Amino acid sequence: MFGDLDEDALVAKLAELRREHRALDAEVRAAQDCGVVDQLKLVRLKRRKLMLKDMIFAIEDQLNPDIIA
After folding, report:
1. How many C-beta atoms surround the C-beta of residue 9 within 10 A?
2. Which of 21, 46, 58, 62 meets the CB 3.0–4.6 Å disulfide criterion with 52?
3. From CA 59, how far away is CA 53, in angstroms rounded?
């Protein structure tokens, strides 16, 4: 997925994805707190948030591979 990026680019992409994940988290919480919630929008936000989390884990695994010796 991110195999063509060097370590610095991966670190930068990781920071960007984490920022976007935090922003989506805040948006989801705000939507839930306001009372009137567009359920379809909420589902889309949550799905995007999960996708970002998967990408974050993929980059973290690439930066810190498990080495079994």
Report:
1. 12
2. 21
3. 10
Q: How many CB atoms lie within 10 A of CB 28?
A: 17
Look up residue 12 and give its two tokens.
Answer: 């930068």
3-state secondary structure of 43: helix
Name 13's Cβ contacts closer than 8 Å, sequence gap at least 6. Answer: 2, 5, 59
Residues 6+ apart with CB under 8 A from 17: 52, 55, 56, 59
Q: What is the pTM assigned to this prediction?
A: 0.83
Range of the domain at 55: 14-63
| Count of structural domains within the chain | 1
Secondary structure letter of residue 9 according to DSSP:
H
